Amino acid sequence: MNTHIQNKKSIKKFLLTLLLFIFIFQISNLKSNEVFAQQITLSISPPLTEAVIKPGKSILVAYTVSNIGDPVVLSSGVRPFVPQGQFGDLIVEEEFSGPIRFNLENSNIKLSDSFFLPTRQGQQLLLKIRVPEGTPEGDYYYTFFVKNEPGNFLEGATSSQATAVVGSNILITVTESGLVDVQGGIGQFGVIPKYQLTFLGKKFSFFESTDTIPIVLVLNNKGKNLIKPYGTIDLKGNFGERAEFDLIPQNILSQSSRMVIATPSAQLSDVQSSVNLSGFFVGKYTLNTSLNFGIGTENLTSTMSFYAIPFKVIIATFVALAIGILLVKKIGKEE
Amino acid sequence: MIAKTLLKKIFFGLVVVFYTLFLIVYATPVYAQRINSSGYTIIFPNVNFSAGNPSSAGYDLSTTVGQLAAKQFSSSGYIVKAGFQYLHSIIPFTFSISDISIDLGSLTPDTPSTATTTLTVTFGGAGQYQVTAVEVGPLTTLSGGDTIPDTSCNGGAQTCTESSAHVWTSSTAYGFGYNMSGNDIPADFVNSTYYRPFADSTAPENPVTVMSNSNITESSISTVTFKANVSNIQPAGSYQTVIKFVATPSF
User: Fold this and answer.
1) Which domain holds residue B190?
2) Residue A227 β-bridge partners
3) pLDDT confidence of B16, banded at 50, 70, 90?
4) Which of A38, A243, B185, B187 is 20 to 30 A off residue B193, Cα-Cα?
5) Contact between residue A108 and residue B36 where contact means Cβ atoms under 8 Å apart
6) Does domain A184-314 have CATH number 2.40.50.140?
7) Is A159 on the interface with B (CB under 8 A)?
8) Does one domain contain both B174 and B212?
9) Could you list the residue ranges that cross the membrane (chain A) (predicted)?
């Protein structure tokens, strides 16, 4: 009798647990049926392709496009771009132009065709770049991109659809002989001064000793082809202090200027300057840059100087002295 | 006692079956990738098994199969360099939009309506990146007859443009625009009351930079707040447009 009651209790317990499991399963199922916002996350690799090509030749570049967001319908394309400003910005043009020819070598996907990419999957796109015979020598800049197709608009509401376009730049130098046109120059080399004084027509830059000193080096390219700078920015103090910063060989596109970045031990600056100096500076400092645009090119140099004065220390010393004198006088009077 | 043991066994059996089924239903399948061309099919591409500097008396070739690192590929008539030549990054350039459907709902005259989406850029390169934005025409009804114009913010001294944000707080200042907050955004978005109109590609206007950075970017996140405000003479209808966000690494 006792065993029978125990069995009944166990069956009850079991049934209750089973019901609980079914309930949890249903809840989780309901949750999975909720409507979520569509998220787009796309990556492209390589981010940059540089090619030096003879007219009449073609190359094949393999791009990997990955979808880390929701399943998405994508399409690819190529558009020319033009550099903007001195900080490496660019504008991708709306229409295709130029003599270079592009097509995808994938058997099932063509440029501007739509293709589906499920979540956490990649698609390799084989871009063929062909330089037709007779293409004028010079540089041609393009962006290869993939974009999601805009979804359906919401009915009965004011809405906008966002399209994500992720691009990778292609820098093409067309040359018959392999020789490129190097016409680089130093456009600006100096510091962004906190205080400036003009005396007898000369400008003097001043900083407080604890200030961060931003150095700017802008290089111009007046040639037909892109160039890369190789060199250093050197700092010399009047007490024998020395520091050297290597220039990163970033591309300076044809007929443009770029503020190049210098790096000590691969640490990049965090403001829009070539390099930032931080520390405690006192006295006169001389900055020198020495660079070229590759083997066999002319070495360019430029020099400037700035002054660092410990204003804060001087003011603090005067305030301390003034307080000290006042205290001594007060104590003297009291005595 | 025997029944209790049996029930325990059934219970554990059911649990095992339940979880096995759960795993089968929800596990993401993994497939080998394929590269196809009219002339060939390669299964399992991008296998980075070969890297180095093979050389002989006739040639010196530097290769990395799969292009995960920047190396120089050369042949007669061309030289190709893939990736940034001064930095070997394994972080691909990635761009994300948290919600591509921006719902401003039913607009009520003199009552601004807002919606947000988040932009995220991940980039291991040392070059700059930028994200530009442009609208494919102003908010327009499906018939194309009526539009909500782009905002000029509060107007007067507080007039904003495509490249300069200004205060937009007046409920009688109408139009469509956006505010930005977060990382790497233009400095003119001083706070959440500052707005700009989108550049209009049909005007035609050039896309405007809304995010940019010159540093090694692990993850830069910004929020775009879309805002629309209409007057009581705005014709009723569903107004729509497409906003194109273009993310590109620098050169």
Assistant:
1) 94-249
2) A252
3) low
4) A38
5) yes
6) no
7) yes
8) yes
9) 306-328
